[in-house]
Write a structure and sequence with these properties.
With 210 residues, this protein is of the alpha+beta class. The protein has seven helices and four strands, in the order ααααααβββαβ.
């Protein structure tokens, strides 16, 4: 690290003044030590690290940038480009990925999709937790879920017919707005009407978030 520091600042301050300043700060280093380090060939570890960096960068790119330390370490043991890959330590994998600025996709908990409203809800509960129906188009239930994409979070609203278990309506959006749930419901109503089905006796149930 000291040699690298001197290398970065030698053109501005000179090698000898930098060594003198480091020595006065109780980091004793002689100019001859710096020049000797510069003249030595790269160590076996440095050569090995450089080879590993190339492989790690390629593996990370080939796997869409989602591999973290654990999966990267396991993959390196299977890489044909590394003859002695099984000797790559996990800490080495972690160090080199940090040097390259690589990280995996976080498993952090996703966004909330059920956010109760603050105002009073006077709508009656017509289902009372009895999620059964003796015919199609008698009871539909709705829910919203989400998935992570390279463009960010994408929300999906689904309308399910309780009797047939058919998804009668759905919609995708990058924002969690009222239109997401309403568009899914309108799709279901339009589809059933287009197919000649009567939905006049339909009960549509959703939680307060939807």
């Amino acid at each position: 690290m000291i040699v690298k520091y001197i290398e970065q600042h030698k053109d501005e301050y000179g090698v000898e003044p930098i060594c003198a300043a480091l020595t006065s700060a109780e980091l004793s280093v002689a100019p001859s030590t710096y020049y000797a380090a510069r003249s030595r060939p790269p160590s076996a570890r440095a050569v090995r690290d450089e080879d590993l960096r190339v492989v790690i960068a390629k593996v990370h790119e080939d796997n869409y940038g989602v591999y973290g330390i654990r999966k990267m370490h396991a993959q390196l043991a299977r890489e044909p480009a590394l003859a002695d890959a099984r000797s790559v330590a996990r800490c080495t994998t972690q160090r080199l990925m940090k040097d390259l600025g690589l990280r995996g996709i976080s498993r952090a908990k996703g966004p909330r999709t059920t956010i109760p409203g603050s105002g009073p809800d006077t709508r009656p509960d017509l289902v009372d937790r009895d999620f059964t129906a003796d015919a199609p188009d008698r009871l539909w239930v709705a829910d919203i879920t989400y998935c992570r994409t390279f463009a960010g979070w994408v929300y999906a609203a689904f309308i399910l017919d309780v009797c047939s278990r058919r998804v009668v309506g759905w919609q995708l959006s990058t924002s969690l707005r009222t239109d997401l749930a309403l568009d899914a419901l309108n799709m279901g109503l339009w589809t059933r009407a287009h197919d000649g089905h009567d939905t006049s006796a339909l009960v549509h149930h959703s939680d307060r978030g939807v």
